[in-house]
Amino acid sequence: MRQPTITQLIMAFTLATTASAFFRLPCKSPLVVERADPVISPGKISGHVHSIMGGNGFGFEMDYASTQLSTCSSCTVTQDMSNYWVPTLYYKAENGSFISVGQNGGATIYYLQRSDPTDANYPHIEAFPEGFRMVAGDPMLRSYSDTNEQNAITFACLGTNTPETNGFPNIKCPDGLRVQVFFPSCWNGVDLDSANHKSHMAYPSGSDHGSCPGNFTRLVSIFYEVIWNTPDFDGLWYGDSQPFLLSSGDQTGYGYHGDFVNGWNVSTLQAAVDNCTNLSGVIEECPYFDFITDTAAQACVIPPSINEQVFGVMPNLPGCNVVQNGPAISEAQSKCEAPTQIGPFQLPYVDLTSSKGFAYVGCGSDPGGQPRTLLGVQANNATGMTVEYCVDYCVSRGFSVAGLEFSSQCFCDNSIPADRAPIPSLEPMCSAVGNCAMPCSGDSKEVCGGASLISLYQKCKGNGSPCENIHLPIINGSMSTGSTSKSPVHLQGLSSSAEPSSSALTSATSSSSVLPTEESTPATSSPFSTTSAETTPLVATSTLLTTTSISSAGYDVDTNGQSPSSTYHNHHHTHSHRARVGIQGYPTAVTA
Ligand SMILES: *[C@@H]1O[C@H](CO)[C@@H](O)[C@H](O)[C@H]1NC(C)=O
Ligand SMILES: *[C@@H]1O[C@H](CO)[C@@H](O)[C@H](O)[C@H]1NC(C)=O
Ligand SMILES: *[C@@H]1O[C@H](CO)[C@@H](O)[C@H](O)[C@H]1NC(C)=O
Ligand SMILES: *[C@@H]1O[C@H](CO)[C@@H](O)[C@H](O)[C@H]1NC(C)=O
Ligand SMILES: *[C@@H]1O[C@H](CO)[C@@H](O)[C@H](O)[C@H]1NC(C)=O
Ligand SMILES: *[C@@H]1O[C@H](CO)[C@@H](O)[C@H](O)[C@H]1NC(C)=O
Ligand SMILES: *[C@@H]1O[C@H](CO)[C@@H](O)[C@H](O)[C@H]1NC(C)=O
């Protein structure tokens, strides 16, 4: 479908009915990036890496009660402790290495009040019940067929006027690659989940709009957008095909998918679904929600508990996924030497309390375009930086605070400015682990800060007071309360070992009527016809978001138009006030 003009968009908004009301929930950063998927692989390591957003009650095995144990979320509404996840994006280098692609913020989750006059309870739209979960898309797919499920997954090449595609676009995207999943909104009204995590749900006739099959009832529609910093790799394309792939080894993109585990206060979500029907999408206009700050949301992370590298340059994809581009359905991945056991939390610090008398005080900030957080001395070591090296360096120069940043940088001082200190004192609700997650250049098992984020260590007082690392308030959301059994709603045909089979997926999707493909939708259709009045707002909101989400993540606010990485390197020399934070600073080819 051709992208509508701004005038068309404005007209579509103006004329839209409440059927196209929506609100956008910002998730400011990933909660954790690891091979976890408590829906498809409960209690086990997932086959591939996911970027997981939402409440810190997340665990490898979790239920609604786990979500409600959360003390923070990486999304900003306090009444929502849901989890939202998608596969992580990687770059495949010409020499065979894989490099993680930076995620621009976390995700934007659209909640859309879409219904249809043929709905069983029209115009009623229901909030997700407690214990509800679902999956959209199929990681095994490597080819396109014209199903509602596949049409619900789209790639928007930001900064171009090209149509959205169902797989990776084979062109560079100047403003990043936004990958989008529209979830099914028709519910069988009974089951919170199903064996394939899909068949309790169905797509409406138009995939993102239209009538539900049979007597299915309407739930609020959700739509995920995640933006990847693919321009960091613009200088590193080679051959005839685009160089990106999903964590599952999928270079086609057809295996993209999304998972949702409901963690809402259901009555709050219902009130919002019923009454927050402004057409602006601005979630702050909804009076039922309370918000945490962006900083608190960004600081809400949990440490991974699988002992493998997921960021930076790697010889294999995590989990040793091999590149499989089909067109046949993907085979199960080989496991090579990838971990098969969930381990203890991989704490984001090295314990130097007894060896060096230094304690980890947390992940602080070092915003671009402002004076450094630690102003003593600085050492860079592109290949040999470790926490021990930095602490020794600072001690040798007579300093009592050491900070590591961006994998290879070490800073020293004798105090930490309060406004750059780790979050807990400022935001009691958030877990304060922070987003320091970059492997050290000299030891990929150690963490050396992030982009504009600094891993801080401080000399212990020694006057008889204990030398202790900061206590990280980690919630382990592993299912322990078993409260879903109280629910009157059943889990349809659920067995914990059930994996979706391709035949189940086919039958689940083939029962719904078929969406016209993007190509077959007449480009000239009036935005005011019934069909396009429903579809256009989605395109419109997505398109409009191109500007807003990128700005809010701080990229195009940058005055000198540099890539995030180069901006970072030069931030002492610019007066850029790009919003700090939120940008996961993974090592990229640009910085390598
Ligand atoms: C492969 O190429 C990437 C990107 O240029 C580079 O970062 C990486 O170090 C290379 N790996 C090896 C093993 O040479
Ligand atoms: C919908 O219909 C099917 C069979 O036609 C029935 O089993 C199911 O209970 C119905 N669901 C609802 C929500 O009425
Ligand atoms: C959900 O929110 C409502 C309205 O704020 C509140 O009264 C209720 O206690 C909350 N429910 C739970 C389970 O927290
Ligand atoms: C939503 O609006 C309706 C109609 O104005 C009102 O009756 C209802 O109480 C509202 N719901 C909530 C949760 O305030
Ligand atoms: C709609 O937006 C206005 C502000 O633009 C706000 O005052 C009002 O509360 C909003 N109403 C709803 C139902 O969201
Ligand atoms: C979380 O709790 C479960 C159940 O108590 C335990 O088996 C698991 O090891 C814990 N996970 C971590 C990472 O500590
Ligand atoms: C980099 O760090 C390593 C130790 O990890 C050290 O041996 C080496 O001398 C350092 N290089 C520079 C240039 O400081």
UniProtKB/TrEMBL annotation:
Residues 569-579 have a biased composition (Basic residues). Residues 357-460 form the WSC domain. Keywords: Signal. Residues 494-535 have a biased composition (Low complexity). InterPro entries: DUF1996, WSC_carb-bd. Residues 481-535, 553-579 are annotated as: Disordered. Residues 1-21 form the signal peptide. This is WSC domain-containing protein. It comes from Lachnellula hyalina.
